[in-house]
From TrEMBL:
Biased composition (Gly residues): 602-613
Location(s), subcellular: Nucleus
Sequence segments annotated as region (Disordered): 591-613
Protein name, entry field: Actin-related protein 5
Coiled coil ranges: 299-333
Taxonomy, superkingdom: Eukaryota
Species of the source: Equus caballus
Main localization, broad class: nucleus
Functional summary from the UniProt entry: Proposed core component of the chromatin remodeling INO80 complex which is involved in transcriptional regulation, DNA replication and probably DNA repair. Involved in DNA double-strand break repair and UV-damage excision repair.
Cellular component per GO, a single term: nucleus
């Protein structure tokens, strides 16, 4: 996200860039992916954007993930009948024309539609250049949601092992991977992670390097809700531009023009000052066409347009005459054929034809033939005349000069008006002033501008005040206070010494200062705390997963192999410093058959005794 403030009213007009993604090329894996040991594939499976790349060993493992694309797909019409297949990620280009067709495999931040998830994985493996036949012969490090449901992990493991045939997999939380990447080696492994993404915001306490899942809290607000709130605010403010205020443009405003106020109420008071508003409002320029119909045409262009219209009209009339002439000629030929029947003496066929023509006598037939012949001949003459006069100049519209006799009455009227001129006062020219006043030119560019003022702070403020959008949830400050109160004071002091901010929704300017202000208000007097913002809140999750994969490449205690998947089930995984806590499924105990009472003499009463144990 770019800096938020721009000084001066002349510098705060920003055009919408309307980002259109370019299709990803199919990359070559290269020799680095084919070493003595299989190179891990790192997949940051985010609900807003997916990132994929190789965890290449060596001093330079790579600057960034090789693939970054929106985690959505759209199936074209007729795709199931052999038409256009599904398109994924950057292959979609601009999302707004396809917004109604977009589908995501996520419910909030949890993947639930594994059919769509398979499309995202196919796209990633294909464009990364995975060349193994029939399987993906690389270990995979995959991010998942905090406290991911067992069913979701089971379906994901089944997809990876059964469909792609991977050798092993490791699951981890994106924010913990980001914490792993930014944590210096000599720093304590305890801390408090505040992670805000596209759908959710999490506050995760870390004790001695492990997630304290019992005290984790989630706020169901993120960048998606902020973009929707900003869209509603601007659509209410500018109802004339309802269709132009799209979600993609609102995300652009959030990413590049919004900021977090250190004190929300005090910042709103600043916006009441006209000078502050004029210097800090961002005017977002909507696209528009500056060429109005007929406003920039010269007299020659207008004359040429009239000639073209006249020529098209003449051609249209000529075509209609030809069609009508053809129909009349066919009907005339039919009538002449009936007349020949009369001349040949075929009376039965002649009377039958008269009945079909709805005529009563030969005289009526003869009269109709004469009229139709005359009409056909006239039509032929008109067509010939139109072909001769097709190139006709437009008649000059200047009025003819009137005769001298017609001018004499008007001159007498002018002289009679001059007799009454002294009766008017000197103030009467004010009546004529509006006639000669030049009307101001309508500024079309200014009409297509969105003035984004307090909306710059109102939209991102919802993660601190969910009540702004009617959500009955606690904000970040209240949730942070609630979590700290669940620990002893010495543990609280240890946690606040390492407050770590990560996630794409933490990139607003002023976010770190706001968190420090909230901590200062809730902590005891003269107590200390440290707040750290991730070096790259968006990509550090992928970087951390890559670092973790290289550090634990040969550690069998953190990877789930195919054999373990088949023995222990799809929901099983191994814990590590960046993972969730494994909670196995607890099945109810069943009574053994040896403890059942004999059925003789008791009937059905003995058979149901052990069912409730």
């Amino acid at each position: 996200m770019a800096a938020a403030s721009v000084a001066g009213p002349a510098a705060n007009v920003f055009p919408f860039r309307d980002f259109r993604a370019a299709p990803d090329p199919v990359l070559e894996a290269g020799p680095v992916a084919h070493g003595p040991l299989p190179v891990p594939l790192v997949l940051d499976n985010g609900s807003f954007q997916a990132r994929a790349g190789w965890a290449c060993p060596g001093p330079d493992p790579g600057p960034e993930p090789r693939l970054q694309f929106r985690a959505v797909c759209a199936r074209g019409r007729g795709g199931a009948r052999g038409g256009a297949g599904p398109q994924v990620g950057n292959a979609l280009g601009s999302l707004e024309p396809l917004r109604w067709m977009l589908r995501s495999p996520f419910d909030r931040n949890v993947p639930v539609n594994l059919e769509l998830q398979e499309l995202l994985l196919d796209y990633s493996f294909q464009h990364l250049g995975v060349s193994s036949q029939g399987c993906v012969d690389h270990p995979i490090v995959l991010t998942e949601a905090v406290c991911n449901p067992l069913y979701s992990r089971q379906m994901m493991s089944e997809l990876l092992f059964e469909c792609y045939g991977i050798p092993k997999v490791a699951y981890g939380i994106d924010s913990l991977f980001s914490f792993y990447h930014n944590k210096p080696k000599n720093l304590t492994s305890s801390g408090l992670i505040i992670s805000s993404g596209y759908q959710c915001t999490h506050i995760l306490p870390i004790l001695e390097g492990r997630l304290d899942a019992k005290n984790c809290k989630r706020i169901n607000l993120g960048g998606s809700q902020a973009a929707g709130y900003l869209q509603r605010l601007l659509q209410l403010k500018y109802p004339g531009h309802l269709a132009a205020i799209t979600l993609s443009r609102m995300e652009e405003i959030l990413h590049e023009h919004s900021y977090i106020a250190e004190d929300y109420v005090e910042e709103l008071q600043k916006w009441r000052c006209p000078d502050y508003y004029e210097n800090n409002v961002h005017k977002m320029q909507l696209p528009f066409s500056s060429k109005l119909l007929g406003s920039t045409l010269t007299s020659e262009e207008k004359q040429e347009r009239r000639q073209q219209q006249l020529r098209r009209l003449q051609e249209l009339n000529a075509r209609r005459r030809e069609e009508k002439l053809q129909l009349d000629q066919e009907r005339l030929d039919r009538l002449l054929y009936v007349q020949e029947l009369l001349e040949d003496g075929q009376m039965d066929q002649f009377h039958k034809a008269l009945i079909e023509l709805n005529m009563d006598s030969p005289e009526e037939l003869q009269s109709y033939i004469q009229k139709l012949s005359s009409a056909v001949e006239q039509a032929k003459q008109k067509i010939l005349q139109a072909e001769v006069n097709l190139e006709v100049d437009v008649v000059d519209s200047k009025p003819e000069t009137p005769d001298l006799e017609q001018l004499e009455p008007s001159l007498e009227d002018v002289e009679s008006i001059n007799d009454f001129e002294p009766l008017f006062s000197e103030e009467t020219p004010e009546v004529e002033k509006p006639v000669t006043t030049v009307q101001p030119v309508f500024n079309l560019a200014a009409y297509h501008q969105l003035f984004v003022g307090t909306e710059r702070i109102r939209a991102p403020e919802i993660i601190f005040q969910p009540s702004l959008i009617g959500e009955e949830q606690a904000g970040i400050a209240e949730t942070l206070q609630y979590i700290l109160d669940r620990y002893p004071k010495d543990v609280q002091e240890m946690l606040v010494q390492n407050v770590f901010l990560t996630g794409g929704n933490m990139m607003y300017p002023g976010m770190k200062v706001r968190i420090e202000k909230e901590l200062l208000e809730m902590r005891p007097f003269q107590s200390s705390f440290q707040v750290q913002l991730a070096s790259n809140p968006v990509l550090d999750a992928w970087y951390g997963a890559r670092d973790w994969a290289l550090d634990h490449l040969e550690d069998s205690e953190v990877w789930i192999t195919r054999k373990e998947y088949e023995e222990k089930g799809g929901e099983y995984f191994k814990e590590h410093c960046a993972s969730n806590i494994y909670v196995p499924i607890r099945l109810p105990k069943q009574a053994s058959r040896s403890s059942e009472a004999p059925a003789s003499g008791k009937g059905s009463g003995a058979s149901g005794g052990g069912a409730g144990e």
